[in-house]
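User: Now give one protein:

AI:
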Amino acid sequence: MVKTQGLDKIEKELASFEKKATQGLDQTVKTAAVLCVAQAKKNLSRPYPKGARDTSQLHDNITYERGPQTEGITYRVGTNVEHAPFIEFGTKPHFPPLGDESKGLIRWVIRHMGAAKGKTPVFGKVKKADRVDKAKSIAFAIAKKIAKYGTPPKPFLRPAFTEAKRKLIHDLEGMKK
């Protein structure tokens, strides 16, 4: 009869090793997700014409979350902002809603007519009394161009994912050594 001693100790050590390895792997993947979020936000903040940061709504709502345990170690990066796909992929020609002073393209134009602190207004200086009329004519001209050409893509998430993936692969290869 063969009797094995210390088997329970070996099982505990293996379980401890597996837990530590899994935690290290989880942290590595999480670091890639954090990098992806940061890079996507940086991409949005690039200067015109590549960037697409206006009100910061999209920028401030790019996040990551851990995926379900049943999928292994996964993290999801993205946003719930409705206009995100239109920024990322651009649009086909369409006539956008002009809106008014509180919403739509006219609101966007008015926001860009007013200068941010220390910056020059996009559409030049306009007297406050003339701002809405000037904004309407500018918004209509922009809408006509969008109706003819659509809007160009300004990828922010896909390039961020590519960079995070490259770093993750590099970090995982480093863990093998």
User: Anything to note?
Assistant: DSSP finds six helices and two strands in the chain. The beta strands are 62-66, 75-79. The mean pLDDT is 86.
